[in-house]
Amino acid sequence: MGVHGVKAVFFDLDNTLVDTAAAGRRAIEEVVNALQSKHHYGEGEARVICDKVQAKLLKECHDPATMCITDLRISHWEEAIQETIGGEANRNLAAECYFLWKTTRLQHLTLAEDTRGMLTELRKGLRLLLLTNGDKQTQREKIEACACQPYFDAIVVGGEQKEEKPAPSIFHYCCDLLGVQPAECVMVGDSLDTDIQGGLNAGLKATVWLNKAMTTPVDTSPVPHYIISSVLDLPAVLQKMEHKINAKS
Question: Which of these, 244, 216, 226, 245, lies nearest to 9 by C-alpha position?
């Protein structure tokens, strides 16, 4: 599918192409079950531990120069267990929880068949690039787990670059990789703060916000050019863009 004036589409990964949130929920349930059945924690305690870990993940500040992501995330579990249960720190249990959570989450990260089909069709006329923020090791493991490499001309991980989304530099780096101009690119993602704001900062032709819940953003949020409730709606948006361009020409 070629679109006049558009040469490339950049896709976010987490909660855009793969349902990372759902995979994370499955992973948490596995840990809750293991803490109860294997370690004899009450369900309430197990859930408090997991809630604390999820809060720590949301606030996570990671400097790969000082600590690897594995050590940092085992520490999240260690702190959560100690905060909930008290007593001595239990690094072994923390590591067991972390690796169970991580393995389960990766097992449930899949690129849906209809999404694969859409990417295959789009790539017949456009260059496709995967642009994801996050720690290099974590994101590369997700990319490997969902086996999305064959669908893209290039993959860029924020943790491997000087700056992440929404900095214009990472978008311009992506443009250079594909040999295209910002005004020939479209960004698709679920985050207003990183994907949409970043696309606007970099001067891309259009930004497409994936808003699965169709929630109303706050007034101060960046305004996307298009809003879709499923990534599968993207081809229709690209066609709409083409009609607009044809109408102007």
Answer: 226
The band of 220, judged by pLDDT with boundaries at 50, 70 and 90, is confident
Rg of the chain over all Cα atoms, to the nearest angstrom = 20
How many angstroms separate the CA atoms of 31 and 100, rounded? Answer: 7
In degrees and rounded to multiples of 5, residue 211 shows phi and psi of -120, 85
Whether the CB-CB separation of 184 and 163 falls below 8 Å is answered with no
| H or E element that contains 57 | helix 43-58
How far apart, in Å, are the Cα atoms of 206 and each of 20, 33, 85, 155? 25, 44, 50, 20
Q: Is the pLDDT of residue 19 over 70?
A: yes
- The CA–CA distances, whole Å, from 232 to 109, 118, 178, 193, 249 equal 18, 7, 23, 22, 28
Give me the residues paired with residue 9 across strands: 128, 186
The answer to whether 187 touches 170, Cβ cutoff 8 Å, is: no
Query: Which residues have a Cβ under 8 Å from the Cβ of 44 and sit 6 or more positions away?
Result: none
> Do the Cβ atoms of 109 and 18 come closer than 8 Å?
yes
Q: Could you give the angle at which helices 69-85 and 43-58 cross, rounded to 10 degrees?
A: 140
Residues 190-215 pLDDT 10s: 999 999 999 999 999 999 999 998 88
CA distance 97 to 205: 44
